[in-house]
Automatic annotation (TrEMBL):
GO molecular function: oxidoreductase activity
Gene3D superfamilies: NAD(P)-binding Rossmann-like Domain (3.40.50.720)
Entry keyword Membrane: no
Biased composition (Polar residues): 269-278
Short name of one Pfam family: adh_short
Superkingdom: Eukaryota
UniProt protein name: Ketoreductase (KR) domain-containing protein
Signal peptide range: none
UniProt keyword terms in alphabetical order: Oxidoreductase
Region (Disordered): 269-290
Regions crossing the membrane: none
Length: 344
């Protein structure tokens, strides 16, 4: 299947007002970069939506809230301040949302840090980079799935999107999933990517009315490198123009991710009869899920909506050998241990 044209993306996004009014969305990592651009595309394309933006920077949130008001004054954007490298903070934010909302239509996860530092453990015993790229995102999904399911049960949009490195992660250190002893940047990238690929399938197997999308966004110029040492930032600045042909503009990435998060080209595995729960597909039809089955509810996508298949054999091996199940059990055990430590 070819990449989706920008015209198709825009035509589809222009129909999103038909899904509302009053869609509810949560953007974790929406205070900058790719998350911010998807948030703004969502606010511009929907009617009277309620948006929660989760992050640390109050200044960025104030700016975004102001800009969103100019884009669409019918929408309401609220900031929930949290450092989500700790699961306790994820739980606090989720319980706040659960108290206030009866349903959720869209959960977008884009938190990220780019650092060359080694393992940096939080008091919960997780590396903070792995936490923002993987563990806290999985916790948001698992905490908020009941609200997403309420939307699915009433034939409304119900989608999860996580932006990281879909379908490209290499073999993991299988005996050390949280990289306590084998931490490196490349292992961290592989573990967070592959574990996400397989966890979305596992969520999808149970929560069939929700679609799960993992993307690899390509090269997008954002604030991601701001924490790097000066010499590396200078090197990126020099390399920037060389990467230009492969760079996706910030606004385009927002529009494309909004499409991937809402189009019925990527539907949940159980679509209600009333297919109004996503933007209608055009002639391109329904995409192949990560298991190779069309419309199976969990999707690994490239920057332009194409199916990302680079590590398909590895994922198949991990399903066959029980590694996918081990990843699930490991992740749930980490969450149990974080909760237990908090309550003891
Ligand atoms: N840009 C690219 O070319 C590219 C390529 C491949 C993959 N990706 C992935 O795409 C995702 C988004 O990247 P981006 O380029 O949009 O980065 P970005 O502009 O730096 O945005 C990262 C977001 O994560 C939030 N964040 C980071 N640590 C946090 C924490 N501890 N608690 C709460 N929020 C936190 C930041 O918010 P606060 O500052 O408010 O905390 C910010 O909103 C990342 O996972 C990245 O690895 C990006």
């Amino acid at each position: 299947m070819k990449g989706v044209s920008l015209d198709t993306v825009r035509t589809s996004n222009a129909t999103l007002k038909n899904l509302g009014p009053g869609l509810v969305a949560v953007f974790v990592g929406g205070t900058s970069g790719i998350g911010e651009s998807i948030l703004k595309a969502f606010v511009g394309a929907t009617a009277a939506s309620k948006v929660y933006v989760v992050g640390r920077s109050q200044d960025a949130a104030n700016r975004i809230i102001k800009e969103c008001r100019q884009v669409n004054e019918t929408s309401e954007v609220e900031f929930l301040q949290a450092d989500v490298s700790e699961i306790a903070n994820v739980d606090r934010v989720c319980s706040d949302i659960i108290q206030r909302e009866k349903r959720l239509n869209l959960l977008v996860l884009t938190t990220g840090i780019l650092t060359v530092d080694g393992r940096n453990e939080s008091p919960e015993g997780l590396d903070r980079k792995m936490a923002v790229h993987y563990y806290s995102r999985m916790r948001f999904i698992s905490n908020l799935l009941p609200l997403l399911t309420s939307s699915a049960s009433s034939s409304q949009l119900s989608r999860v999107m996580t932006v990281l490195g879909a379908g490209i992660g290499n073999r993991m250190v299988e005996s050390d999933l949280d990289l306590k002893s084998n931490f490196s940047l490349s292992n961290c990238g592989a573990h967070c990517g592959v574990m996400t690929d397989l966890m979305l399938e596992r969520f999808d197997a149970t929560w069939k009315g929700t679609a799960f999308v993992h993307t690899a966004p390509g090269v997008v110029k954002t604030n991601l490198g701001s924490g790097l040492p000066t010499y590396l930032r200078a090197a990126f600045k020099v390399a920037g123009p060389l990467l230009a042909p492969w760079t996706v503009g910030l606004q385009e990435t927002g529009e494309r991710h909004l499409f991937m998060a809402t189009s019925n080209r990527y539907p949940p595995s159980e679509l209600p009869n009333d297919s109004s729960c996503g933007a209608p597909t055009e002639k391109n039809g329904v995409a192949e899920g990560s298991d190779g089955v069309r419309g199976s509810g969990a999707y690994l996508l490239n920057w332009d909506g194409q199916i990302q298949k680079q590590n398909r054999d590895l994922l198949e091996e991990y399903r066959r050998t029980g590694m996918a199940e081990r990843i699930w059990k490991h992740t749930m055990a980490v969450f149990d241990s974080c909760s237990k430590d908090r309550n003891s």
